[in-house]
Amino acid sequence: MKNTCFLLLTVLFATTAGAQSTQFNYPDAFYFVKEIKTTGLTERPFHIEITVKETPADSLSRPRIYAVQVRKGKEDIIGKTMVYATATNGEWKTYSIDGITDKEATRIWFYAAVNGNGNFYFDKLQYSIADTNGTLQEKDLSNQSFEDKKILNGYFVNTGNSKDLQIKASAIANDGKQSLQVIATNQKPAGIRGVVKN
Fold first, then answer.
1. SS3 assignment, position 154
2. What spatial distance separates the first Cα and last Cα of the chain, rounded to whole Å?
3. Largest Cα–Cα distance in the chain?
4. Residue 64 class from Cβ within 10 Å (0-12 exposed, 13-18 middle, 19+ buried)?
5. What's the rounded Cα separation, in Å, for the pair 23 and 20?
6. Which residues partner with 36 through β-bridges?
7. Residues 6 or more apart from 96 whose CB is under 8 A from it?
8. How far out from the chain centre does Cα 181 lie?
9. What are the beta bridge partners of residue 181?
């Protein structure tokens, strides 16, 4: 998948979130995307969640978790399907997204980012979709607990141009033997934009 489709996705998030809350935009934000196929599973409830342990360096820095549905085309985003995650409290927060697959969707892009500075651990990505009876059934995702030797195997990744970014496996985990650790320092905000508080 070309980087341009994720650039488009990033622009979509920045422009449609304006009515929510005002925070700073970090141009070198690290993000990763999991593509989830939904062909033949349209108009069904779904649930996606990921656990995150976070130590932000300041009040502006935090993870950003989103999902959007996409048609067949490379960059054919169904804008009205964008959903922001809500978070639970606790040492490991669970960020969750609930929605219904659009009748035109062939996949869901699950998007997780570190916006700003701090130390963040990501683990245990889970996806469930309703069967024909309406009961949510969990589906396997490749490398969903970041256990592969190549920590981000199976994900599309943007590391930006920042030299002050560390991405590595960590033994601090909520599920399995390791998690994805992201350490961001010296990230500078480029300006104010609307983003969700999650």
1. coil
2. 28
3. 50
4. buried
5. 10
6. 108
7. 47, 48, 49, 85, 86, 87, 88
8. 14
9. 121, 168
The pLDDT assigned to 192 comes to: 53
Instruction: Find, among 89, 124, 125, the residue nearest to 198 by Cα.
Output: 89
29 and 160 Cβ atoms separated by less than 8 Å: yes
Work out the number of other CB atoms within 10 angstroms of the CB of residue 84. Answer: 18
Cα radius of gyration (the chain): 16
Q: DSSP label at 152?
A: T
> Among 115, 118, 120, which residue's Cα sits nearest to residue 53?
120
Query: What type of residue sits at position 190?
Result: A
In this predicted model, which residue has the larger pLDDT, 60 or 47? 47
Tokens 């609307």 sit at which residue? 194
Domains of the chain, CATH where assigned: 3-17+24-192 (2.60.120)
Q: What percent of the chain is predicted at pLDDT more than 90? A: 62
Q: What angle do CA 9, 15, 20 make, to 5 degrees?
A: 115
Alpha carbon distance 154, 60 (integer Å): 29
Grade residue 26 by pLDDT with cuts at 50, 70 and 90. confident
Q: Residue 103 has which token pair?
A: 């009748």
The pLDDT value given to residue 161? 66
